[in-house]
C-alpha cells in the first residue's frame, strides 16, 4: 500500500451542523457574527484530515469576502475585544475544536 492510500479522511462529529453554517455563510454578508463564525470554523477545520467540502467552502467564503485568513483573524480579534458576538446564544460558546 502507498502512503496516500493508507490515510483515510475522517468524518468530523460536528460536520452536519457546521455544513449548515457554511452553507449560510456562502450567501451571507460579512457582518460581525458571520466573520466570527467563519474564523471559528477555520480554526476548527485547520489541519483536520477530512471534511474537504467544508474546508473548500470556507476558503471560497474568504475569497468572496476579499479576505485573507490573517485579515479575518485580525478583524475577529477586534470584534471579540469590543462586543459579545454570541449574545443570546449562551456566552459559553467555546466550541472551537
Protein described:
By secondary structure, the chain is mainly α. It has one domain (14-82). The chain contains five helices and no strands. The longest helix has 14 residues, at 32-45.
Question: What's the short story on this structure?
Answer:
The chain is an all-alpha fold. The protein is built from 5 helices and no strands.
List the helices and strands and how they pair.
Layout: H1 3-6, H2 15-26, H3 32-45, H4 52-64, H5 69-82
Give the key terms.
97 residues; mainly alpha; 59% helix; 0% strand
Class derived from helix and strand content: mainly alpha
- In round numbers, the mean pLDDT is 87
Can you tell me the overall shape?
globular
Q: How big is the Rg? A: 15 Å
H/E series: HHHHH
Identify the quaternary structure here.
single chain
Low-confidence stretches: none
Beta-strand percent range: under 5%
Give a count of the beta strands, DSSP E runs of length 2 or more: 0
Distinct helical segment count = 5
For the record, the count of structural domains works out to 1
Gap between N and C termini: 31 Å
Largest sheet: none
Assign a percent range to the helix content.
55-70%
Amino acid at each position: 500500500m502507498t502512503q496516500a492510500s493508507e490515510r483515510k479522511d475522517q468524518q468530523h462529529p460536528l460536520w452536519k451542523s457546521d455544513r449548515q453554517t457554511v452553507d449560510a455563510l456562502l450567501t451571507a454578508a460579512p457582518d460581525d457574527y458571520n466573520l466570527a463564525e467563519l474564523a471559528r470554523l477555520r480554526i476548527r477545520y485547520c489541519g483536520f484530515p477530512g471534511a474537504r467540502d467544508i474546508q473548500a467552502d470556507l476558503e471560497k467564503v474568504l475569497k468572496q469576502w476579499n479576505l485573507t485568513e490573517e485579515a479575518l483573524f485580525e478583524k475577529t480579534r477586534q470584534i471579540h475585544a469590543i462586543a459579545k458576538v454570541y449574545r443570546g446564544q449562551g456566552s459559553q460558546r467555546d466550541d472551537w475544536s
